[in-house]
Amino acid sequence: MLIIRTDSTPEIGTGHIMRCIALAQAWQDRGGEVVFLSHCGSKLLRQRIQDEGFNLVSLKTPHPDSFDLEFTLAFLRNLKTSGQKEPIVVADGYHFDADYQKAIKENGYKLMVIDDYNHLPLYYADILLNQNINAPELNYSCSENTVQLLGCKYVMLRQEFLRNRNFKRTIPTKARNILVTMGGADIENITLKVLKAIYLLNDLDIEVKVIVGPSNPHLEEIKFYIEDKDLPASLIYSPLPEEMPEFMKWADLAITAGGSTCWELVFMGVPSLIITVAENQEGIGTGLEKFGAARNLGWFLRIKVNTLKEEIRKILYDGIREKMYLKSKKLIDGLGLERILYEVTQL
């Protein structure tokens, strides 16, 4: 049994839960049972977990509130006393610090920690997973017995993406179809900054699809801007799971935050402009640009609307999009979950 401890709030975003859904799908396909222990503010996201057939136990307050660890350990003890198979705990969230991990381990449970940027002085885990391109360069401090799964060999993709592993893309001379996706929350409303840049392009020969996630607090403002400026854009709020790969197939270019969506875009071969919106995303953007699979625009606070407009204008006609596509096809093979679950079953 997998016990997945992960959360979603406007500050945390939706990416941790979404990639854990990928892990849970693969585990369930192998006949395993999954329970999400989660503080999740989005009703749509809670419904998504349950629609997948996973059990969801809601936590009222997350760590560092003491309730979290007390409740989680009590839940695990109850499983043991009820005769359930020994659970394996998966912790995905930057607030699950060394003390939290240590407590899980010291109470006798197997633990996999999912991380992005080596932000802790020490990790207590049986398996430490970082699926990002820069992960092999990070010098993690952990037990010599910890299995470290680092790099894009271990990218977790949901079933709706894996079904499209044979998709082949045609790169047009001009990128006309632009996908804007700034994460499930986008607290800083970078989506609006991108739309302002697109408006300044004054290009009527493009079409834009704007993905707005379930935790985004700026929905009405974005909707008003699109209508007020008569942008050639359609707004898609919290798309269905099977819709995202179709939007990515449609897109000639994506403008995206530097989170987990990058790996879906790379897998689907979408040339992308990446905007960093959080510290944990820095290595993703720089790593993908170095590899040649995307262009990294850096931190959102440093990007002026006019600069962003020029970056978009340049790449619309740039042959580098073909090179990005070819590079992206070499980076992710879609077998990451198989590799991860092999190690999990060895615990």
TrEMBL record:
Species in which this protein is naturally found: Desulfonauticus submarinus
Pfam families: Glyco_tran_28_C (PF04101)
Active site per the UniProt annotation: 16 (proton acceptor)
NCBIfam families from the UniProt entry: PseG (TIGR03590)
Binding site for substrate: 158, 264
Taxonomic lineage from the root: Bacteria, Pseudomonadati, Thermodesulfobacteriota, Desulfovibrionia, Desulfovibrionales
GO molecular function: hexosyltransferase activity; hydrolase activity
Stored InterPro entries: Glyco_trans_28_C, PseG
Keywords in alphabetical order: Hydrolase
Name of the molecule in the record: UDP-2,4-diacetamido-2,4,6-trideoxy-beta-L-altropyranose hydrolase
Domain Glycosyl transferase family 28 C-terminal: 178-283
Record keyword Lyase present: no
